[in-house]
Q: What sequence folds into this?
């Protein structure tokens, strides 16, 4: 990807994670990067188009983490899922506990924008899908009950994490994360 | 409360639940209600002050529902908590599944505004506190394990609900709610 485009996306992610979509103007992104307006509109058709690329950039990082953790054959399937969430939490910590970008933009925009609503639901469904596949392995190895609805459980876990991420953003700390992971992993393995 | 003030708050809740805080201007609220600008600023010092009153209005409804359900002695403590969430879901359904106003505004604003961050965290903590008291009763009656950390469990439940509300807003349906309630109530009573 063009270096300027990448720089704009990275700056947009930082700005929109903190302040949201509507409170960040294209001018804010230009000021943060020193990129001229013409260059911005060379790479992006509009602010909406830009934000969709920012979401893609965020999701690319999530996919890289999903891949690094969930396909790690040295770890048991449930441990891999825990590794994924530990990795997400480490990213949140580095950002000062601003929570999940998908949750933040999803809440802000999905009431009024079908484009963002479908985009962000799709991103969360992808994450849930990846975790569901790993839960399938855990079911095969007998680490979770054979009767487990792995698709449903993956959604439960992702949604509970999103709620914890909201509380983390509100409280600006990591407190909500361990309890939710402990609760789910204990409940799943108690069979 | 003054009828005009109440009308403005109600309109603000509808507009901000759908579109968020930053995308709704004072003019939108005036247009929706036919209230003149001078009257708005007679009741509210600023748009921020207005939104804080809208949150108070939302939270007053939540408190009324908490009171109606959690103090209902005809029902067992855990059933009362389920009644509360069923009531919240019924409200979401009536609004077309736009999710939780506290979650929506909390995500949009808490990265940049300490005022909204503390306000909304306080609202969620109040809900969690009410549920925690009811869980104390469930512990006393033996419906959940004597070892249950009721404060922690109430937070887990509220946070998981918030995550489900996000997914409901994204998918515009009620699908995420039954699984999360079933999972928690099953896990809590399995002892």
A:
């Amino acid at each position: 990807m063009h270096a300027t485009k990448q720089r704009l996306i990275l700056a947009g992610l930082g700005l929109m994670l903190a302040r949201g979509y509507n409170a960040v103007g294209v001018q804010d992104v230009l000021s943060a990067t020193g990129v001229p307006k013409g260059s911005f509109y060379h790479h992006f058709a509009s602010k909406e188009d830009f934000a969709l690329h920012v979401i893609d950039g965020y999701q690319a990082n999530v996919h890289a983490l999903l891949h690094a953790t969930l396909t790690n054959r040295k770890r048991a399937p449930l441990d891999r899922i825990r590794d994924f969430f530990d990795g997400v939490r480490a990213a949140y910590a580095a950002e000062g506990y601003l929570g999940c970008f998908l949750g933040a933009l999803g809440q802000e925009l999905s009431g009024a924008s079908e484009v963002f609503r479908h985009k962000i639901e799709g991103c969360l469904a992808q994450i849930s899908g990846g975790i569901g596949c790993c839960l399938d392995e855990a079911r095969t190895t007998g680490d979770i009950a054979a009767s487990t609805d792995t698709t449903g459980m993956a959604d439960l876990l992702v949604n509970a994490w999103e709620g914890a991420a909201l509380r983390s953003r509100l409280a600006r700390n990591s407190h909500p994360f361990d309890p939710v992971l402990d609760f789910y992993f204990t409940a799943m393995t108690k069979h």
